[in-house]
Amino acid sequence: MPSVQGDGLGFPIFLRHGGLLLTVRFHFHRFTGQCQAQRGRAITARRPELGPSARKLTKHAVFFQKQFKPIDKKMVCCSVFRQPILHDEGPGMKDVNGGSSTEKLIEIIRGNSQVESSPAPVSPAAAREGSRLFAAAGKGPVVGVLVEDDALRLVRMTGPVGSRRLDDCKTYPYPGNLTPADKTFPAFLKTSLQNFGVAAARIWAVLPSDQLEVYPLRLPKASARDLSSAVYWAMQKEKRFNEQQVIFDYSLVGEVMDKGIPKLQVVCYLARREAVGAVQRLYRRAGFALSGVSCEAAAINNLLGAGSAAPPGESWAHVHLDREWSRIDLFARHDFLFSRNIRTGSNSFVEAMVEESPTELSAAEALARFEGQLRGRGEDGVCQAEELLQLITPALGRLANQIERTFEYFEQTLHFSRPEKLILSGRAALFPGLATYLQEQLALTVETLDPFAVAGPSLAAIHAPAAPAERILFAVPLGLALAEVGSTTNFLYTYREKEQARKDRLTQRAAVVGLALLLGLALIFYGWQAHTRAGYQAELDRRQAELAALGPELSPQYLSALFAQARKSRDETERSLVRHKTIAVLGEVAAVSMAPNVRLHSIMIDAGEKGATGAGNLILDGFVDGNRQLLDSYLTGYIVRLQASGLFSNVRLQKTTEEIYPGIGKVLKFTLSMQYG
What we know:
Blueprint: E1 3-5, E2 8-17, E3 20-29, H1 33-46, H2 52-67, E4 75-84, H3 101-109, H4 131-135, E5 142-147, E6 151-158, E7 165-173, H5 185-196, E8 202-207, E9 212-220, H6 224-238, E10 246-258, E11 261-272, H7 273-285, E12 292-295, H8 296-305, E13 315-321, E14 326-332, E15 335-342, H9 346-356, H10 363-374, H11 385-391, H12 393-413, E16 421-425, H13 434-442, E17 445-448, H14 451-454, H15 468-471, H16 475-481, H17 495-550, H18 556-592, E18 598-606, E19 616-624, H19 631-644, E20 648-661, E21 665-676
Parallel strand pairs: 5-8, 8-12, 13-16, 16-17
Antiparallel strand pairs: 1-2, 2-3, 3-4, 5-6, 6-7, 9-11, 10-11, 13-14, 14-15, 18-19, 19-21, 20-21
Helix pairs in contact: 1-2, 8-16, 9-10, 12-13
């Protein structure tokens, strides 16, 4: 994807070079053609190990300047980044948009593709060990396990989140020629964990760095309900992935301003599903269930950033120096943002010593002297630390160059401030003068990590090893022991499981609130019933007192007077009914006959002999008009309405005749009889 950078557009092209993926970003700047040729030669000079690939990049630069006339006064500069290829381009991992990077770049420059400001970088749920592992979050000790090439390192911590204390840490060297790939390694792992004491503990392991890809992503602001879907589909758009092959997860960093527009910064993770499964299977064969599988950068963030009240700075970096590679992690205070692997490690320093030594030096001798300096046992008279530092300067220069390029990407493409401090870890970081050299080259504070000192007195226990070369190797297991389900990146407990747990918590809370409301309503109803019963009892007592005040018994004379009064009232009511009954019948007939197709000629009322108390007779003469074919239907509907009236009964049709009325047309005359009362 193109990105606006500097005074021109930057476009990435990806090329394979052996086991590396070369990320080439072309920049269009206003320079001269002479500067362009010099720039192309500089690439080859700085990166001789790229060989034909660097020359191929220079050809690309010349090709693009010749192809696009609108920019003939600009030059094409190339910035080269490299990282290990983390996945094969198998099904689900290819760029499904089609077309080569060169073709896409041509379309972008010609204006056929939209230029975006977002950077180029940038499942079925994994099998779980059981919900009980995650339900126990926050309970019991936490054990961080780091499986290295030569030893197993374990850290156990106890206490709640935020105030954990180091309980124990140990190193278990592998016996004989045992390696983590051997079939007998699970038995060694089981014995070591049992000896260390992990009963009722939550065990955290780490995923190898080369099995994980990290992509920072910026999105328009979205609601909490829609955020996961927005991140998922934005990541699918940026880099199509197959959830059968990878586990997708993300972490929300927070709100950032991008060109004056508020956006959400997230960090997306693509972890190889098979690699996560292999870690699980290893511990399962040893008889243990994992609570979490995280990454090394998350562990370092637990130790220095998220788990620390005072992170190293607003923006800070961590570089882990391993044998074959190094990893650069970038952070913003408490948040991990970006990670990148480079193929420069301690073996590169040893190779530089062999190549740059003025005297013949074998690889074994160079390694022994290098290791001696790490342990503080350099051999005086053979090669001092300063001389060794001079020998490894070419490799250190490549390392500093890669770090600087990563900082530029972090600052210019991701739009974060340049890191203020660099923390070094790994045994090679203890080489005398290495931190000072990087500090001078990068112009920032560089410190060597002491994992037992950075988090305060909670880690300064008697169990901590004394040798710096041993202490520094516990950085990752210490960070894992500070992990917590739900907050630390966990490829066994991704955003989907977190959302499901949140929904379960909401359901449980809703159930508790509902039960509390029902209980409250029951108590209110009980109180109301008690109050009402008390009121009724008081009224009953009052009535009974009134009855007692009336006297013991009613006299016959009083009853006779009451009877006479009642009969008089009844006679007055009957006389009133006689007067108003006819009016009520006429009103009911008028209400029922309001249909537009019904017209009445005459109404004949016979009140009967019993007057108000007996049933009267009613005869209606009239006709219905309208659609000739529906005259019978109109009449039938009228009869149904009369029968539905509560005042009339025994409605009968006496006769019907069809006649022609002037001005109306054909009508259906009828005569109806019924009773009322």
